[in-house]
Amino acid sequence: MKLQRKNGLRATALGALVVSGALVLTACGSDDNSGSTGGSGEKTSAASNIKCDGAKGQLMASGSSAQKNAMDLWVKNYMAACTGVEINYKSSSSGEGIVAFNQGSVGFAGSDSALKPEEVEESKKICKTGQGINLPMVGGPIAIGYNLPGVDKLVLDAPTIAKIFSTKIKKWNDGAIAKLNPGVKLPDTAIQAFHRSEDSGTTQNLGKYLGKAAPNDWKFEAEKKWPAPGGQAAQGSSGVAAQVKQVPGAIGYFELSYAKSQSIPAVSIATGAAAPAEATSENASKAIAAAKIKGTGKDLALDLDYTTKADGAYPVVLVTYEVVCDTGNKADSLGTVKSFLTYTASDEGQKILTEAGYAPIPTEINAKVRETVNGLS
Fold first, then answer.
1. What's the superkingdom here (predicted)?
2. 222: which residues sit within 8 A by CB, 6+ positions away?
């Protein structure tokens, strides 16, 4: 198993280098880099408000594939403004990102779940004078995407979703689905349920939702490893989305940006509110706005409400954290980490999230993120 994991990590790393190279070419070909200074310059780009103060060289980062599409945009814009600086974000999984962070091989990691106590303890070996903390940076809905020719709109509730992904409901014309979709002609097609093959914060957040909203039908612990029997596995959010796109009768879960980019219809969720909630950035923001900070000190981990019945609030949400050292960051990467995360947490950085199918972090919480990023040392 160890050998297989190592080989998988090597393959992912090679893929990341290709992505990074593409991003560098995109940035270099941009018209937005006029007026910016070199890597460690202190001027602001003429085409944006991105500040490159202290940034230099190459910054390695990795983790959550949920934020890949947001990170691609951020990296492109940032490298266009800060010439001579390269941000290499390897989109893999939350689990692999945290492992890389606690091994000291990346400046920050992306994770769709807050660090566990044992992971925080392990981080102290790398952070030296401090520890790993969670900075909420990307919000958004987890879309339940499906491929059912002739069915453009579909409503499900938490118990039905739980039964589908645990293979208790096997056909699309099952009575439980039909009851939620009166007047819709549902085919007698076998359900092909797809889940993530690797440890994933997206999986864990879906599990948290199902465990809270359908406790009688989802008895599994909310872990990053897919817990239910049956179904089919695919690598990353992109892999699950690709399978749903290709396979008639398929259903899977991934961030809304993947559904939008591949024109995959997404399920609306019946929550007990006046009307089912659609998977939109705006509706996800309504749910995330009710979150409370549960972290202590500089840690900004959030407690999300997966059982909300607020009108329009889409409950299947996740928040991706950037995991960093509060103190004890490596001197050669600290300036770039602070500069880049200052941009991602800025009004400009957060604004592009909606355009990409994500949800900006609520203003009050984001103000604390900016303050914490500014104080990293």
1. Bacteria
2. 204, 205, 207, 208, 211
Model pTM score: 0.76
Residues in Cβ contact with 15 at an 8 Å cutoff, skipping those fewer than 6 apart: 90
According to DSSP, the residues that pair with 155 across neighbouring strands are 268
User: Going by DSSP bridges, is the β-strand pair 192-196/85-91 parallel, antiparallel, or unpaired?
Assistant: unpaired
Pick the CATH number of 2-138+321-374 from 3.40.190.10, 3.40.50.11440, 3.20.20.70, 3.20.20.30: 3.40.190.10
* Beta carbons within 10 angstroms of residue 269's beta carbon: 25
The residue extents of the domains of the chain are 2-138+321-374, 142-287
Place of tokens 């029997």: 229
**Non-local CB neighbours of 56 within 8 Å, separated by 6+ positions:** 39, 40, 84, 85, 332, 335, 336
CATH architecture of the region 142-287: 3-Layer(aba) Sandwich (3.40)
**SS3 state of residue 332:** helix
